[in-house]
Amino acid sequence: MILLHCPGHCARWPPHASTPLHPPSVCTSISAPCSPQVFPLFQALGANGLLIEYEDMFPYEGRLQLLRARHAYSPAEISEIVHLATCHGLEVVPLVQTFGHMEFVLKHQALAHLREVAPFPNTLNPHEPESLALVEAMLQQVLRLHPSARWFHLGCDEVYYLGEGEASRQWLQQEHNSKTKLCLSHLKAVAGLVLAQHPTTTPLVWDDMLRDIPDDQLTDSGLSQLVEPVLWDYRADLDVHTKALLMEKYRKCGFAHLWAASAFKGATGASQALTPIEHHLRNHVQWLQVAAQAQASALQGIVLTGWQRYDHFSVLCELLPVSIPSLAVCLQALLHGGFAEEAKARVENLLGIRSLDLMDFTGEGAGSFPGSDILALVTQVGLHLCSSVDALLERDRYVTGWFSPYHRKRKLIHPVMIRHIQPQALSLLARWGALVQALEVALQRVFYPDTVEEWLEENVQPSLQRVQALLQDLGEAATSC
After folding, report:
1. Is 158 one of the catalytic residues?
2. Distance CA 112, CA 121 (A)
3. What is the pLDDT of residues 213-268, one digit of tens each?
4. Which end of the chain is more exposed for a tag (fewer CB within 10 A), N or C?
């Protein structure tokens, strides 16, 4: 199965009516828009599953209602997502974090007492009975809206600070107790909650907390009878041999079915705005080499993760519309066993791109796929906004020679220099203002207002404010001439 990983926050559902968006099995995981228009594209590109990480976008109810984001989906919207995905051959797999990456839960003061380490909301305290009750309530509500799910992803990656809380330190002082035992115990308990409610649903877990566990302990734990590990590695130069050995380790420890996890966006920088396609293609080519060394029956599928943020508190990284060419390249590489001319032609045809250049895909006016207008505008901002402002403020001879920081602070300027500097600054501001206005309109068709506001404040406003500040200083200096 080829699964697309879709963290669900930030995107409108349903989208504005005029919105153009929103081998092994392939499942795409995307932290971004899921509109009716993207489902046929995902299917055409080769995905047959959708791993949705709802985080705070799920419509939790009752005592869990505090977990909801302001624009959380409604139950009806989630039912529509599942229905439309199914209609386009995309099997939905929900993902709920149940151990690490619990920031969206444990940030709330009402639940802060369930943190493993009091100051940090990353990790759930596995010793608190209320912790398991909380997880059970979350799982029940999500499963209720995904009654036909064959798999349910429990997260469990990057369980930072495990064993460092006071309760854990006391527990670890007892004979035969260890962090490994603590980790395995919680994973088994959470997997048991899913299986008790839905015996036909198989729990998945990210594998990083299992990698270093000795083979005998992992085998004796019985975890292999409860979950299927998802081996993740997003590097362009992942170690194929080591990864193949890890798959063999899991197989020997009793895990009959394994998953791989790559990335088509994210993983290359917390504030990355444009997707480096070539990096992600190399990651998938490496995974193909790993799969070639694995036992054929062991690999269930691959999850193409698409990050929206590095964690709940970080800035936005690449938006989905910006990364669709990367997604297309990676999916077609998996389906064709590499990215030769046939796969490239298929991507160009599906996305309406005249000539795809992996090393220099600017997106400027290229493509007719859903979201291509956003890609073109974001590319203009990402490649040229900062540099054009720098050229004026740091390299223009009139600005650096006659209106330097020293002069600006004291509002000193030769009157004739205003005629050289001001028109350039006004022209630059007008040019970018028009483009940003078009981008804002395009983003508003797909994303919620707070997401649009955040992206523009992070990626646009700092540069425009530098030009506005220059013009303000010019105006004040002019009045003192």
Report:
1. yes
2. 7
3. 999 999 999 999 999 999 999 999 999 999 999 999 999 999 999 999 999 999 99
4. C
